């Protein structure tokens, strides 16, 4: 055990004491989990590159850049954290003896925070981009470019990286967790540890709440647009496809991350410590986000759905063609509402429409007179 006077104190006894127990986990589970996630993200990255080359829609190309940033983040997160966990179960190394200066623990903790916040922040950023693209298309088209989209992804990485480095600068600390294969936030009654734990959780929860609110508004707006004229539907297919993918990404992030974030908030506010097995359970639950995210784009694309259900006429560019019953209900409702407001005026309008063709013939009668006079 390292000296308790160590500045980092990542191995010191706190409210979450470290217990070296390599027999708690199995290398097969970690290896299978990491391999599945890496393969999934690699497939998604290849599909994204192919789609970027084929797409001609500007808003879709920007959305693919955000998806690419999300896939790269998930891939690197699994690669970095999975490598350390697998090496621990293979070698049974005791980091408190091999790394008394806590370099490993700090790096592992930074990786857990960085690769945990990035998907949540990227999800919120994608929700903001789709909200502007659907509700304020003219503002978006004049101010958003590919370079600016890439810079937004880089900014998200910078913000997450800055938050993860705060314990290195003395604001909070990282602590090795049982069974000794990973490090995470040190949740104690100390002011710095308590504040940093709340900061991490609140940033994640605010990102999820922002995504939920903006995506809800965007979906409502998109439904109104999809019920408009047919000529406007042809430009909304990609919008619907992107919103479906974004909602699924938000749902996965909410289900996977909310238990851990709420657990950290309640533990920090209570200040009474917690059971390590619950923290380990919610961490494993949260890491499923990195495996499920890439399959959203791999599976929920029109080209894939067309193969799954070829009976649907996917060649048409109308979103309403996928839901004929919904379209007919909208038409019936529209006709009934128009008929109730204009019921007595309909016969007169028909008579006027029948009499209008005679109007263009009337000015034609003076034509021969004019010709005759000229002759």
Describe the structure.
With 375 residues, the chain is mostly helical. The chain has two domains: 27-300, Up-down Bundle (Rhopdopsin 7-helix transmembrane proteins); 310-337, no CATH class. The protein is 71% helix and 2% strand. The protein has 14 helices and two strands, in the order ααααααββαααααααα. The chain has helices spanning 27-54, 58-91, 95-98, 103-135, 137-143, 146-164, 191-226, 230-233, 237-270, 276-299, 302-308, 324-342, 346-355, 366-374, and strands at 174-177, 182-185. The protein has a two-stranded antiparallel ribbon with strand order 1-2. Strand 1 (174-177) and strand 2 form a beta hairpin. The chain crosses the membrane at residues 27-49, 61-90, 110-132, 153-176, 196-223, 244-269, 281-300. It is found in: Cell membrane. InterPro entries: GPCR_Rhodpsn, GPCR_Rhodpsn_7TM, Prostanoid_rcpt, Thbox_rcpt. Keywords: Cell membrane, Disulfide bond, G-protein coupled receptor, Glycoprotein, Membrane, Phosphoprotein, Receptor, Transducer, Transmembrane, Transmembrane helix. One of its GO terms (biological process) is adenylate cyclase-activating G protein-coupled receptor signaling pathway.
């Amino acid at each position: 055990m390292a000296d308790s006077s160590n500045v980092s104190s990542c191995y010191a006894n706190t409210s979450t004491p470290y217990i070296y127990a390599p027999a708690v986990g199995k290398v097969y589970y970690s290896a299978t989990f990491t391999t599945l996630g890496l393969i999934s993200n690699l497939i998604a990255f290849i599909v994204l590159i192919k789609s970027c080359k084929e797409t001609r829609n500007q808003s879709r190309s920007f959305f693919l850049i955000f998806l690419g940033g999300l896939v790269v983040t998930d891939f690197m997160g699994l690669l970095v954290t999975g490598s350390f966990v697998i090496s621990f179960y293979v070698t049974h190394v005791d980091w408190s003896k091999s790394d008394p200066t806590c370099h490993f623990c700090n790096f592992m903790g930074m990786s857990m925070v960085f690769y945990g916040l990035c998907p949540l922040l990227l999800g919120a950023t994608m929700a903001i981009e789709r909200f502007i693209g659907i509700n304020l298309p003219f503002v978006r088209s004049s101010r958003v470019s590919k370079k600016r989209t890439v810079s937004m992804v880089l900014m998200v990485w910078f913000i997450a990286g800055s938050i993860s480095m705060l314990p290195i600068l003395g604001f909070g600390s990282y602590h090795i967790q049982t069974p000794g294969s990973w490090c995470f936030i040190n949740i104690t009654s100390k002011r710095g540890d308590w504040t940093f734990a709340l900061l991490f959780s609140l940033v994640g929860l605010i990102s999820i709440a922002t995504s939920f609110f903006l995506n809800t508004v965007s979906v409502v707006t998109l439904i109104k647009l999809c019920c408009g004229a047919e000529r406007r539907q042809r430009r909304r297919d990609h919008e619907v496809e992107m919103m479906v993918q974004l909602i699924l990404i938000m749902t996965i992030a909410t289900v996977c991350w909310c238990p851990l974030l709420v657990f950290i908030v309640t533990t920090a506010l209570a200040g009474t410590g917690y059971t390590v097995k619950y923290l380990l359970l919610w961490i494993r639950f949260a890491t499923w986000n990195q495996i499920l995210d890439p399959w959203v784009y791999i599976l929920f694309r029109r080209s894939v759905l067309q193969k799954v259900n070829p009976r649907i006429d996917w060649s048409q560019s109308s979103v309403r063609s996928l839901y004929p019953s919904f379209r007919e209900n909208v038409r019936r409702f529209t006709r009934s509402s128009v008929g109730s407001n204009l019921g007595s005026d309909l016969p007169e309008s028909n008579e006027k429409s029948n009499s209008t063709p005679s109007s263009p013939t009337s000015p034609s009668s003076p034509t021969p007179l004019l010709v005759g006079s000229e002759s």
